[in-house]
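INFO  loader      accepted 1 record
INFO  loader      residues=351
INFO  predictor   begin
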Amino acid sequence: MLEDALYLFDPNQDYFSQLVAVIAILSGVVVLRLFKSKLNNQTSGTFLSVCIGAIYTPAKFLLMTSAIWSLIETSDVIFSFNLGLDEYAVLQILIALHVSWYGFRIINNYERLSLSGDGSGSLDQTAVIGLAKIGRLLLTLILVIVAFDLLGLDATGLIAMGSVSGAALAFASKDLVSNWFGGIMLYLDKPFQVGDWIRSPDREIEGTVEYIGWRITKIRAFDKRPLYVPNSAFNNITVQNPSRMTHRRIQETITIRYDDMNLVKNIVDDITKYLTESELVAQDQTIIVNFNGYGASSLNILVYCMTITTDWVTFHQHKQKVLLDIGDLILELGGEFAYPTQRLQLEQAES
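INFO  predictor   done
INFO  writer      dumping tokens
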């Protein structure tokens, strides 16, 4: 099909055929323009709409440059000398350039659509960014190799030279290469993604992930300071991802007075009943309410359970209600909370 299309641009054909080809090309530009908006509206928000929206500009310029090249090659008035170029190779390079341009536009538009939240795909933002970077890199490499082949150059020499220079560059900039491979592992393993809250107990790293690049990862700390962490650092540190927790934990020690020793069992039973009936507590998780030991000035009761929410703000609201309700239960039973006290015993001296 490509050979049939290029046949129209053969300068050995009659001038009328060339003129028909130019008119057909320019008519194609008009047709593309007329149908672009209509097709976009019918498929808005889908991958098909991305492909349709991306094709107009590259196709328009491909048709226009093809028409201009055809006129140049067939006009003895404009050029009366040999350009020294294979017209088929030039047209093929033009097609390769515009197809690559079309590919870049599809990748960029789909990435923008997915990151804006308007896409309906199942890929997360981290995967979209990673695949877009890899796609652009592959398109560039394919375009360079195809251009060398169409121009009659030996692409194997370029590949060999790139391998040798790449090895030398990797040796000279091993940290950069380490960060690059670290970025690839982040995209593949996905210990976290854009929008996650992460922290490292090994280093002072905690905040929300804003961007995962080839060399660095940008994290916004809770005091709004940006942190730029080299990707290679994540190969050697432990990373916690609280964003992926399933529950949040309440673990508190309730202290009551020694004077309320006779109320301990009733307090434990009432708190246990309350937690097992509460809608704020995850009933499929461990619930522990036990007398846990004798303190210096208190009797200690352990309260351990999981909330149904993982949201930070909502968790504290639920925890507040649970603790206040436990306090009301203790007061209803006649108990009181303990606080640090000391008892002094004075002896009266004999006179």
